[in-house]
Specification:
Length: 348
């Protein structure tokens, strides 16, 4: 006796076909998703790897800068103490003292900047919160000469900066700005009433505009010309042209800003000449520069430095990593190797 075969109608056959197609679609979708997830995981692993390589390279750059500065101070013990861009640290990262190997994992760029080649903001006031006249005059020259501020605008910046740093709550005349002024202007901050910890604080101070702080395309702003580090001495071997011009006694000698800037340019040409490098250790080397006979300079200059900043950019694949460090060196004891200290360190 034959068993009857189940009858499948054409409608049921169509439903089964649709179901099979749906299942196949699900399988294909899962397969594609799995492949994509594998690609994402592979890409993610690559990104993590390149990020770690970049951070390691940028850290290596900071360590190399630290070595060069430490080695430079050690060598200075055997000869005249001096710091200028013609030394090994000034040619960082390319120099003759340390030959960098070929980097297969990325590229390394950076620079070492002498922080004592900038104007020391915290030296404007003494311990009692009163002006140090030479520093005040140099900063005034910089504001009115390089930045073309009027005398009243420059005084607003100066007095507001004084109020930001001194310990009292009394504004310095009508151009100063204590905490009450910022509250009246609906600001969310108050005066530090202590030395600045960062150049970026200038952006909070009355009279300091964004252009004054950041500068323009070919004009350096305050952020590039001032510092909160150092012992107060300004290294004339590394100071930029605007600051060299501001160091000259312009009002006392009747010198115009254009004349001061011209002499500053001559100073830079003099110190860049290798034939003069053996003279740069002398505090009065600038008197050998053409036109120096009628020039006077404020006595706050030095020819050596102890604080440097380092900026490193490391490229690993498609990713880059940046490091910023402020290094301080001390080698007063001749029987011990120079000491290096990181005052500040950032990496991103």
């Amino acid at each position: 006796m034959k068993t009857a075969e189940p009858f499948i109608s054409q409608g049921e056959q169509g439903s089964i076909l649709v179901l099979v197609l749906l299942l196949m679609g699900v399988v294909v979708t899962i397969s594609v998703y799995g492949l994509r997830m594998a690609q994402v995981e592979s890409t993610g692993a690559k990104i993590v790897e390149q990020s770690m390589q970049g951070r390691a390279l940028s850290e290596s750059g900071v360590r190399l800068a630290k070595f060069l500065l430490q080695n430079d101070l050690q060598q200075d013990r055997e000869q005249k103490r001096v710091d200028h861009p013609g030394e090994a640290w000034g040619r960082f990262p390319e120099n003759r003292e340390v030959l960098l190997p070929e980097l297969e994992t990325g590229e390394l760029e950076g620079e070492i900047v002498d922080e004592q080649g900038k104007f020391p903001l915290n030296s404007l006031l003494n311990e009692k919160g009163n002006w140090r006249s030479a520093y005040r005059r140099v900063f005034f020259n910089l504001l009115t000469g390089h930045f073309h501020l009027s005398e009243s605008q420059a005084e607003t910046v100066l007095f507001s900066l004084k109020d930001w740093m001194d310990s009292d709550q009394e504004p310095s005349g009508t151009r100063g700005a204590e905490s009450v002024y910022y509250r009246q202007e609906d600001k969310t901050w108050t005066c530090r009433n202590a030395p600045l910890k960062s150049v970026a604080e200038l952006r909070l101070i009355r009279g300091v505009s964004q252009d004054l702080y950041s500068g323009e395309e070919k004009t350096p702003g305050l952020k590039e010309l001032v510092t909160v580090h150092g012992d107060g001495g300004i290294n004339i071997n590394t100071a930029p042209e605007p600051l060299l011009a501001a160091l000259l006694k312009q009002r006392e000698s009747g010198m115009a800003w254009s004349e001061a800037r011209r002499f500053a340019g001559n100073m830079i040409l003099y110190r860049e000449d290798r034939m003069h490098w053996d003279r740069l250790a002398e505090a009065q080397w600038w008197t050998d520069v053409a036109g120096a006979l009628s020039v006077q300079m404020h006595p706050i200059t030095v020819t050596t430095s102890s604080v440097f900043s380092v900026r490193i950019t490391a490229q690993a694949g498609a990713l880059s990593s940046q490091s910023y460090a402020v290094l301080s060196r001390n080698g007063s004891e001749s029987d011990k190797p120079p000491r290096m200290e990181r005052i500040r360190y950032e990496v991103r």
